[in-house]
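FAQ: What does the model actually see?

It sees only this:
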Amino acid sequence: MCKVLGISPQGYYDWKKRRKSQRTIDQEILEEAILQVYKEFKGRYGSPRIALALCKRGLFTSKNRVARLMQRMGLAAVSYRKRSRIGRKPKGSGIMDNLVKRAFEAQTKNTLWVGDITYLPLRISLSGHLS
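And it is asked to produce this:
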């Protein structure tokens, strides 16, 4: 295998005996701390908040480094905001029948009115009634 890779056997064994670098050790400690904070806050914290939480705990690092490590670990913040109910389709009881049935030509005036009301600005009060 050393011949295929183009390295000497002694170089391979030297590499295998070599200890981890200080940066690798620091990175492993930081990854464990990131995972701990991420789990503590149920995955809601992103890299800026995790970096701030780590700084408060004495592990001073940047949000960019935390973001890079989180991406490598496959972690991402989860949105926890409630979704708005505005814009949902009404239930079946509120839907009117289609009386036009795609026949847009009327025999006499004022017998068929067709329009699009999506462009009309409406102001809705807090009680939910149109004003």
